[in-house]
Amino acid sequence: MDTSPSPSMDTSVPVPARITLGRFTTMHFVHNQDLPTDFAAYVRKRRFKRLELQGSTNTCIVQCKLLVRNSPKKSTTIGKGRKDFCIFNRLKEGDVIVFAAHNQMRKKKIKVYVKKEFSF
């Protein structure tokens, strides 16, 4: 699978202190699986209870609840709001999404870049 940035994921624009928090296919996001390790550590460290997700095309901001569990094993997932975000951004299984935070953005606002998978 080609993981090079698509036009919607333009990384040539200088954005101060962008942190890529996780990259995974929407299959994981759609089915409420654990967040990637770096993303989970980022939200746990800041003790977030909610996140504001915004798509790469500046779609509406969706408030999402974080589900943080410490036992029996550590688990961090995005709960309520996740499905709405998928619908608003027309995400389908196989799309690659990248979560990024910027120092200039509000603390709990996460930008989500989407690379659509194409079937041939």
From TrEMBL:
Keywords: DNA-binding, Nucleus, Transcription, Transcription regulation
Pfam families: B3 (PF02362)
GO molecular function, one term: DNA binding
Subcellular location field: Nucleus
Primary localisation category: nucleus
Key word DNA-binding present: yes
Cellular component terms per the entry's GO annotation: nucleus
Domain TF-B3: 34-114
Name of this chain's protein: TF-B3 domain-containing protein
Protein source organism: Vigna unguiculata
